[in-house]
């Protein structure tokens, strides 16, 4: 019998981990606290505690040519940059094709992971799971954490003196779902990352005024480059990575 592996989360990384374990002759068990696969890409119309949250209009900023599983390309009629619903469709198709669903326990929360008393000899872990109001401890030989890093927002309200006196709404992009609530309002978007640019663009069609605040400059690049090629197919290369890894940061940034 192969060693038993616990996998926490069934998003893209969790599904890839299940498959890799099977290829290596291991016995994976994936625990997912929601009722479906997809992780970050599973859209919900409200932010859920302990889960990543995306807004309704999210498109990928990586092209399908650069982010597919090696032996499972996207259908030809899928766009280069996909709406989250298309990516969820792809993830679902991949899971069914590779027969991964039978290794996933849905609506199961992992609430604790601890080394067993004989860990120095066995290398085993006690994994505490909660399901249907009951707790259970299960022994595994290894644990893979695939729960993502977009769950807990950074909202430094203490950095904005007087914010408590502000009569408007103040919230993190994690809670944002669609632009209708800002119709006719003046909106300040703090941050010039992917989410900030996406959301500010959406607001611009409905809000009275939109201002983006950024503490540094930035290059704003189109997803589509010369001759219709996706930007990442042009710029994400082994040569570019070699330069970035071997040159001083100031030089590679220049």
- What is the average per-residue confidence, as pLDDT, rounded to a whole number? 92
Determine the structural class based on helices, strands and strand pairing.
alpha/beta
The helix count comes to 7
**CATH-assigned homologous superfamily of the largest domain:** FAD/NAD(P)-binding domain
Strand order of the largest sheet: 3-2-1-7
* Fraction of residues in β-strands: 15-25%
For the sheet with most strands, the description reads: 4 strands, parallel
Helix content estimate? 10-25%
Radius of gyration over all CA atoms, rounded: 22 Å
Q: Give me the CATH fold name of the largest domain.
A: FAD/NAD(P)-binding domain
Name of the level-1 CATH class of the largest domain: Alpha Beta
Tertiary shape: globular
Count of separate structural domains:
2
Please state the second-level CATH architecture of the largest domain.
3-Layer(bba) Sandwich
Quaternary class: single chain
Give a brief outline of the structure:
By secondary structure, the chain is α/β, with parallel strands linked by helices. It contains 7 helices and 9 strands, in the order βαβαββαββββαβααα. Helix 1 links the parallel strand 1 and strand 2.
Description of the molecule:
The protein contains seven helices and nine strands. It is of the alpha/beta class. The chain folds into two domains: 4-145, FAD/NAD(P)-binding domain (3-Layer(bba) Sandwich); 153-239, FAD/NAD(P)-binding domain, CATH 3.50.50.60. β5 and β6 (134-140) form a beta hairpin. The longest helix is centred in the middle third of the chain and has 14 residues, at 84-97. The chain is globular. 21% of the residues are buried. It is a single-pass membrane protein. It is found in: Endoplasmic reticulum membrane; Microsome membrane. Belongs to the FMO family. Its cofactor is FAD.
């Amino acid at each position: 019998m192969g060693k038993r592996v616990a996998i926490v989360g069934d998003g893209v990384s969790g599904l890839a981990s299940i498959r890799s374990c099977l290829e290596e002759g291991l016995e994976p068990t994936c625990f997912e606290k929601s009722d479906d696969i997809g992780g970050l890409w599973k859209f919900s119309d409200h932010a859920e505690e302990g889960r990543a949250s995306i807004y309704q209009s999210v498109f990928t900023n990586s092209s399908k040519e650069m982010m597919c599983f090696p032996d499972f390309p996207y259908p030809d009629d899928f766009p280069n940059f996909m709406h989250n619903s298309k990516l969820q469709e792809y993830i679902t198709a991949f899971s069914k094709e590779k027969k991964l669903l039978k290794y996933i326990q849905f609506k199961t929360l992992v609430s604790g992971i601890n080394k067993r008393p004989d860990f120095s000899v066995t290398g085993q872990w006690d994994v505490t799971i909660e399901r249907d109001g009951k707790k259970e401890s299960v022994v595994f030989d290894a644990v893979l954490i695939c729960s993502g890093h977009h769950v807990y927002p950074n909202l430094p309200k203490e950095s904005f003196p007087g914010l408590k006196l502000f009569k408007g709404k103040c919230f993190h992009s994690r809670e944002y779902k669609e632009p209708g609530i800002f119709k006719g309002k003046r909106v300040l978007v703090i941050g010039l990352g992917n989410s900030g640019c996406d959301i500010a663009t959406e607001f611009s069609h409905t809000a009275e005024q939109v201002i983006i605040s950024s503490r540094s400059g930035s290059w704003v690049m189109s997803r589509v480059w010369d001759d219709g090629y996706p930007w990442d197919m042009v710029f994400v290369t082994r040569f570019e990575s070699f330069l970035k890894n071997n040159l001083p940061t100031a030089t590679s940034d220049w």
